[in-house]
Amino acid sequence: MDPNDQSEGAQHVREYLAHEAQELGHVARAALTAFGLPADSPVELISHRENLTYRVEAEEGDGFVLRLHREGYQSRANVESEFAWVMALREAGIRTPVPVQGTDGNVVQTVSHPEKPISRDCDLQLWEPGEHADPESAETMVLLGELNARVHEHARNWKRPAGFVRQSWDEHGLLGEDPIWGLSLIHICRCRRIERCRSRWSPYH
Predict the structure, then answer these.
(1) Mapping DSSP to helix (H, G, I), strand (E, B) and coil, where does residue 86 land?
(2) Structure pTM?
(3) How far apart are CA 138 and CA 130, in angstroms?
(4) How far apart are the first and last CA of the chain?
(5) Cα–Cα distance measured from residue 205 to residue 199, given in angstroms and rounded to the nearest whole number
(6) How many CA atoms lie within 13 A of 92 on its CB side?
(7) E strands in 39-196
């Protein structure tokens, strides 16, 4: 979101995201113990989009990435299927994040707020150190092209395990009656478009 956008729609989005981050921060803390980590581990919110994504520091190693999945966006089976393919890609020589099993042996944990009826599916992955690629570099474009080709080739030949399920980003999945991103996000986007139109045409009224 543009930090300079002061429209009414943008303000509503900021308020909603700030409230959600505050509430789910307690869920993130509870998720640490579900994966066998100390509850007081240093945690930093690094992304708040479809999911809330945190960096978790560890006494040894590079740390972890903790994801709290948005309610109604990904099913538990979807996330488990994601990791099934991610690990298959890694076995094929494509560097991907490594999921961490919870204390019960599952890679997806359902964790609740300690005081409120709020729960989220969570997963933990090993932090992959690296650097942001230069988007203007020809070398970056070549590397991305090669990586995309390898991923597509793997997808064509990989035998999906039983129970594998992922969403379809087709017309129905994007703009249908039950879109993957949810009607609430579509409503937020529409509000922002309306506000932009109002600000653009207000001098003429």
Answers:
(1) helix
(2) 0.79
(3) 19
(4) 27
(5) 11
(6) 17
(7) 43-48, 52-56, 64-68, 99-100, 109-112, 119-126
Question: Is the torsion defined by CA of 76, 79, 84, 87 positive or negative?
Answer: negative
Q: Distance (Å, rounded) from C-alpha 204 to C-alpha 59?
A: 60
50: Cα within 13 Å, side-chain hemisphere: 8
The answer to whether 180 and 174 are in contact (CB under 8 A) is yes
How many Cβ atoms sit within 10 Å of the Cβ of residue 107?
20
pLDDT tens track for 102-149: 999 999 999 988 778 888 999 999 999 888 889 899 999 999 999 999
pLDDT > 50? residue 204: no
- Residue 172 or 62, more confident: 62
Tokens in use for 11? 């303000």
Q: Confirm if 63 and 127 have CB atoms less than 8 A apart.
A: yes
Provide mean pLDDT across the span 55-64.
Answer: 91
